[in-house]
Design goal:
Elements lengths: L8 H6 L32 H7 L1 E3 L6 E3 L3 E3 L7 E5 H10 L1 H14 L1 H14 L1 H14 L1 H15 L10 H8 L16 E4 L14 E4 L1 H7 L4 H7 L5
The structure holds zinc ion (2 copies).
The site of one zinc ion has 8 residues, from strand 4 and helix 3.
Length: 235
């Protein structure tokens, strides 16, 4: 075997035949239609430079496209996926269910590997993840209320589940007013269990109402009738 030339360590290491030299005057590599050579990366070329210069032939659609039209793949010899992004996306859409179930199967069979990779990812991205999560919850206050109620209910082993969009539906039903005092709910209203979980209430849509924050704070875990009577209603 010939010794590796400068910048050819990858070919050399793999013991592969040296590819046909298609280097053009600018140092780019052209795909050869007759060989299907789709070299996308010359070793020691930064990826950013390669993106501007190189073309790659998609194995799926057969089109030769700029390298930016392909996703990275660390396992591939040229560092890029063999199908272009458009073909990869189309494949994903067409095989969504199959891919999902294969993924679920792998995760079920490799709980430890999955746990390790998730833990690694979380550890490496903890700050980013935390602020992203905080932002999301802030922007989705209604979802948070429902999530928190469901979580608390499952902790108490009450079970039951509130449905998505419940807050919006109740808001309309209550015409934007507090179920207790009738004042406008505003933005920071609370989703309240009419019969508190602590008193055996169920975590279900039918046991929910929206209260202004201050009314909810007074009610807390009181029996709904006691509470309304304490507020001057003769229920
Ligand atoms: Zn393609
Ligand atoms: Zn109120």
């Amino acid at each position: 075997m010939e010794p590796a030339r400068e910048g050819e360590s990858r070919w050399f290491q793999h013991g592969a035949a040296r590819p046909v030299d298609r280097t053009d005057a600018r140092g780019g590599v052209n795909a050869g239609p007759e060989t299907g050579v789709t070299t996308a990366r010359v070793p020691h070329q930064p990826y950013e430079m390669a993106t501007e210069r190189y073309m790659k032939k998609c194995k799926k659609c057969g089109e030769t496209k700029p390298i930016a039209e392909f996703s990275k793949d660390a396992k591939a010899r040229d560092g890029m996926q063999s199908s272009c992004k458009a073909c990869a996306a189309a494949y994903y859409v067409a095989n969504r269910e199959k891919l999902r179930s294969a993924n679920a199967k792998w995760q079920a069979e490799n709980p430890k590997k999955r746990g390790v990779s998730i833990a690694k990812y979380r550890a490496a991205n903890s700050v980013k993840l935390k602020s992203a999560a905080a932002k999301w919850w802030e922007a989705n206050a209604d979802k948070r209320r429902i999530y928190e109620h469901n979580r608390r209910a499952s902790k108490r082993e009450v079970g039951g589940k509130l449905s998505k969009g419940l807050s919006e539906r109740l808001f309309k039903l209550q015409r934007g007013k507090c179920a207790c005092c009738g004042l406008p709910l505003g933005d920071d209203y609370h989703l309240d269990h009419i019969m508190p979980l602590a008193l055996g209430g169920v975590n279900a849509d039918t046991n929910m109402q929206l209260l202004r924050q201050s009314c909810n704070n007074q009610k807390y875990a009181k029996h709904p009738v006691d509470f309304m009577q304490s507020r001057g209603f003769l229920l």
